[in-house]
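Dear all,

This email documents one entry for the complex benchmark we are building for the journal club exercise. For each entry we list the sequence lines for every component of the assembly. Then comes the predicted three-dimensional structure of the complex as a token string, followed by one or two observations. Please use this as the template for your own entries, and keep the labels exactly as they appear.
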Amino acid sequence: MSSPPIGFIGLGAMGLPMARNLLRKGFQVMVVRHRDPNAPASLAALGAAVVDSPAALGGRAEVVILMLPTSREVEEVVLGLADVVRPGQVVVDMGTSDPVSTRRIAAMLAARGVAFIDAPVTGGVKGAEAGTLTIMVGGQSDAVERIRPVLLALGTVVVHVGESGTGHVVKILNNLIALSTTALIAEALALAEQSGVARSTVFEVLEHGSANSATLRGVAARLKEGRFDSGFKLVLARKDLRLAEALAEAAGTRLEVTAAALAAYDRACDAGMGDLDTAAIAAMKK
Amino acid sequence: MSSPPIGFIGLGAMGLPMARNLLRKGFQVMVVRHRDPNAPASLAALGAAVVDSPAALGGRAEVVILMLPTSREVEEVVLGLADVVRPGQVVVDMGTSDPVSTRRIAAMLAARGVAFIDAPVTGGVKGAEAGTLTIMVGGQSDAVERIRPVLLALGTVVVHVGESGTGHVVKILNNLIALSTTALIAEALALAEQSGVARSTVFEVLEHGSANSATLRGVAARLKEGRFDSGFKLVLARKDLRLAEALAEAAGTRLEVTAAALAAYDRACDAGMGDLDTAAIAAMKK
């Protein structure tokens, strides 16, 4: 399909640069007027159409992309669109949602002839800005192939991982590993201090060791900066680990290492740190 | 110091290529005749002197390097050397040992005028062969500086992290993170299968995601190969995680995420898998 009109809902830290990339790469983009007028205005300056409501957008766009914090917001928006969508449209949830909710929405929209594709991303704000996200896609192949050119404007790696909901499953697994690793790094750093080794020394070595990871480098950079007021919030990390636990429960198993990591996130959120970046758990004193 | 005679004890998968690198870079190397004659013979072909016993080696080498599986073997060898060492010698433990044992040995040898330096490595057999190990060094600065040229023949990153035992502490922290991450990957893979997503698909995505790590790539390679009969043994991994727990206990704290990972290693070892590579825990069916 050549440059379909794309509706984009959710112009946060990730969504805004993603919508910008679509415009830069020649797609027609439609966004919704917003309480905060800055994001739509900055996109309008690049050629985006600004409409008055999600319903107006849903009535006109061929592809509707959602980049929202949780399944709750996704469900609210989809319910608002349900009366205006038309057969042949594709709705794409690029957030980290609950696969159970995803499959429920997909079935509801399928009954209206509308495809619902889960296409969550990894790569953070930097990847969103650079258009280098990794995108894991769940849903029916025909719809996935229709939107592939759109996804390739946002990311460099686009993998169709399986049926509806499996994109969200793989994203949850990615976050299970990355977020639990952050909790492990926090344990290691506490132990280093108790043993008289400075955190900066630990990172100096471990970035060249078998413990090196994207997560380790990210935590090291945040701790060096000493600021935790932007980035990936602890409350959202807790949400993702809870989704992993729910997946395991549904399969009749338990995640023991992940459960211990979730307990660390629970403690941090209960201590009022929920709006801070995840690296803040590695800055807490034991 | 210019090319001191170096004694090397422990010619296993790591030690043999390390000793070979010393010879290639012009150091005089001395090794001990062994039940398995192949390792000493292959080094003798490169110019190594072969002596009859650790005591003969300890009596002649200026620097003695130990590359042994655990503190138990280190203590045995050091006790064997105690009567022959002379003031000014440096003994270097490059294995992953218990820092408590390390500090005890250091004090015992210091009373004889001999420096005991802990200098464990990360980088695996490949790093040992290529001479690109990362080496974390604990002990007194003067002795560390004396052996730095020797260490730089074995690795590219040599960091003096603190006093005696802290090299071993940092190595244990590295392994705490890497080995517990392996247990997390095992949980994620089990969940993927239960959710109908193939392991190979998970790796295809996650190697491009925020969950990417040296450990993830290593586990992916092992699982693809389907062989676990070489590499880093589960029993040694369990030993390292137990050392981490002991460090925490000595500091009056608990490692909760690490403890859950250790439980997974315990189960695998109890199931008779102790001699397999750590990635085998990610191959176990739930």
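Observations: Chain B touches chain A through 65 residues (CB under 8 Å). The CA atoms of residues 87 and 111 of chain B lie 9 Å apart.
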